[in-house]
Amino acid sequence: MPHKSSMRMTGRRTFSPGIAGHWIIRCAVVLVTVLAGYVIDRANYESYLDDTRQDVTQGLATVRTELEGTVSENMQTVRGLVAAIATEPDMNQERFAALASVILDDRDEIRNIGAAPDMVIRLIHPLEKNRAALGLNFRENAEQWPEVKRAAESGKLVLAGPVNLVQGGAAFIGRVPVKLSARPGEPYRLWGLISVVIDIDTLFDKAGLTRVDHLTLALGKVEDNGEPGPILFGDADVFDRDPVEMRVNVPEGQWILAATPKGGWPSQAANAVALRILLVAVGLLIVVPVLLLSWSMLRERVVQGRLRSLYELSPSGIGLYDFSEGRFIRCNDAFLRQSGYAAEHILALSIDDIVVEPLHVELQAQLEASGRFGPVDRQCRRQDGSQFLALITGALMAETRERTLAWLVIQDISERERVERMKSEFVSVVSHELRTPLTSIAGALKLVASGALGELPEKARPMIEIASQNGDRLTALINDLLDMDKLISGKIHVDMTCHALKPLLETALRQNQHYGQNAGVSLVLAACEETLEVNVDERRFLQVLANLLSNAIKFSPPSGQVTVSAVQRNGMVEISVKDEGPGVPEAFRETIFEKFTQVDSSDARQKGGTGLGLTITRGLVQMMSGQVVLADSPSGGALFVLTLPPVASDHRIHNESLPAE
Fold first, then answer.
1. Would the pTM of this model clear 0.70, i.e. be above it?
2. Nearest to 286 by CA among 573, 500, 31
3. What span, in angstroms and rounded, lies between the C-alpha atoms of 162 and 437?
C-alpha cells in the first residue's frame, strides 16, 4: 500500500486534469455520435442504391431475355428455308417466294430473305421492293464480304450489322451457309448462303426496347477482340453513368446492353429525411445525458485518478501433445505462465495432469473420429494447486503412422466469465437506476398531455405525444433488460396455477388489440377448445403471449392478420401465433432465441426493440415446463409454437376443490 503522503495532491492538480478529461469525453461522445449518424445514413443510402440497382438489374434482365428471344426467333425462321434449298438447290424465284412468304407472314421486322448461290444473290422475297439487291456479288462487296466469308468458313449462322443495304436503309443481316448433301465418302459442298435482312428499328421495337418507361437503355456491339463497338440503340452517354450492364448473346457474336434508372441514379434514399430526423433525436438522447452527467461530476468535483487497466490481453497457451507417449512435447510461454509450471516439468505431464477431470481418452477419440476437438470448458489446475476455467480446443496432426500428435489450445477464460458477471450486474444496476426517472418523466408527460396543467397549443400536442410514446418505449426496453437479468440470476418466481386456456388467450388478444389497431393489423383467435387447461403462472404466461403477439404485429404488413390457435396434439397443448410478414430468414432460424438477436439490423432500427423479447419468452416458458419453437410455415410468415404439458387430473381436482374467493 502506498503511503498516504504519496497520494496527496494539491487542489489545482486534482481539478485541472478532471476538467480536461471531461472535455475530452464530451468531444469524443459528440464526435462518435455524429460519425455513427453519418455511417448509418450512408449505409441507408448504399442499401437504397443497392435496391435500386437490383430493380434495374431485374428490369434489364427481362429486356435482355426479350431481345435475345426475338433475335433467336428471327434466326430460327430461316432454318426451314435452308433445309428446303438443301433438298431443292435449283428452285426458281416463284418457288422461293412461295416458301419465303410463309416465313415473312408474322415477321414485320424481316425486310427480305435472299438466297445467294455461289455468293451472288439470285433469289429474293419480296421482289418488288428489293430488285436492286439482285445480282449482288458478296465477293465484290468490301463491306459485307468479311462477315459472309466468316459464315461460310464457320458453317454457322452469323448475325452481322448494322449494314448499309443496296436497296437503302440499315439493318442486321443474318447469314446461314447452305451445304448440299454429298455422296458417300465425299465432303459436303457449299452451295451458297441464305441471307435474312432484319430492320433494326422494328426489331428493337418488337423486343420492347422502345417501351421500357422506367429505364434509360443503350445497346452497343462488342467487337471480336472484346472492345466496344458502335452504338446500336440509345445514347452512348448511358455507358458513362455507371450503368448496369449485361451481355446479349447473338449468333456468333455479342452485344452489350446498359441501363440506368429514368432520370439517373438517386442522390439520396427515399426515407433519408425521416431517418436523419430519427438520428438527430437518438443523438440528442445519447449526447444530452452524457453532457449532463459530465457537468454533475464536475460540480461534485470528484476527481478520480488514472484508470488502471482491468483486463490484460494475453496470448493463449498452445501445446503439442503426443498421444502415443501421453505427454506434451512442446509448449509456448503463455502455457507456462498460466499453468505455473517450468518447461522441464510440463513436458513430462499428461493432459490429465493439467485438467481436473480426465480428458485424454475423450480427446483422443474425438480427434481420431473427426480430426478436431472442442471447444469445451474444463477446470484446469496450476502447479500450486489452484484452478482456473479454460477453453480447450484441439486439431489432429499425424506426423507418422506410429506417432499421433495434436495441437491443443488452452485459453484461460476465468477472466472472461468474471467480465460476463460484471456486465450482467452493470446492466441490472443501470436499468434499475433509469427506470425510476423514466417513470417520473412518463407520468409528467401524460399529465401534461391530459390537459391537467392547462390546454396545450396545437403544435405542442404532437410533440408531447411523441415524447410520451418514446418514454413508454424506453420503459419497456428497461423492463426487458431487468427480466433478462432476473432470468440469468434465477430470481424470477412463477406461481403455477391451473387455468382455462381460452380466457387467457382472449385476454392476451384484448390487451394487444390497441397496438394491432395502430399498426393496421387484426388479431384473430382461430381455434381453441373450451375444455383446454394449462398449468401456468398467469402473469408470466400473458407476458409470453404479449411478446409473441407484439413481434407478430411489428413485422406484419398493413391490413395483415395475426392468427392465434390452440390444440391438444400428442398429449401436449400447442399454442400457435402466426403472422403474414416476411418470415425469418434461414440464416437466423438457429439463433432467433439468443440474446440481442435481430433478423435485420436496418429493419430493427425501424421496428424497435432490444432483441431480448424472444430470449425472455423462451426462459419463461421453460420455467413453466414448456418450450417455444420457430416452426415451418408453408403459407409464409413467421409461425411460433408454444408447447405446454396438459394439466394432470389430480392437479385439476385439487384446484377445483379449492374454495372460491
1. no
2. 31
3. 77
